Amino acid sequence: MIRRRLQKLGEHLDILRKTQQYSRSEFVDDPHLYGSAERFLQLSIEAINDVASHVAVDENLGAAERAQDLPHIFESEGLIGGELRDQWADMIGFRNVLVHDYIDIDRTIVHDAIQNRLGEIERLRSVFARYL
């Protein structure tokens, strides 16, 4: 399960990296590009949370009642630092915005996330790859 999710996450990140070539205006003005990128960003964050939940249970780190608990569990076990914990918590909040407040999303924020924050997802992916 972890292997499949991480593989899928890699595919999502490859797609998102391709969208980095577009300028902010190209990205914002193209509903197909934006919609696709938004969905793959959401799926990437969900994959991180899914893998983390499985690792937490498999390694007896504790069960998370909600996704926001995951970064704290992994930090308390010394598996990630405070900076990555905060970045991950921000991702989870952003994923919730993408899913629930999609009407009010500023497309430039999504563009900025894709341009500047995919490395955070990659770092988390590396943390979980240790459990393969």
Automatic annotation (TrEMBL):
Q: Which UniProt keywords apply?
A: Hydrolase, Nuclease, Toxin-antitoxin system
GO MF: hydrolase activity; RNA nuclease activity
InterPro entries membership: HepT-like, HepT-like_sf, Type_VII_TA_RNase
Highest taxon of source: Bacteria
The reply to whether Iron figures as a keyword in the UniProt entry is no
What Gene3D superfamilies does the entry give? bsu32300-like (1.20.120.580)
Residue spans crossing the bilayer: none
- Annotated Gene Ontology cellular component terms: toxin-antitoxin complex
Question: Which PANTHER family did the record assign?
Answer: RNASE YUTE-RELATED, UPF0331 PROTEIN YUTE
Family per record: Belongs to the HepT RNase toxin family.
Q: What is this protein called?
A: DUF86 domain-containing protein
State the species of origin: Salinibacter ruber (strain DSM 13855 / M31)
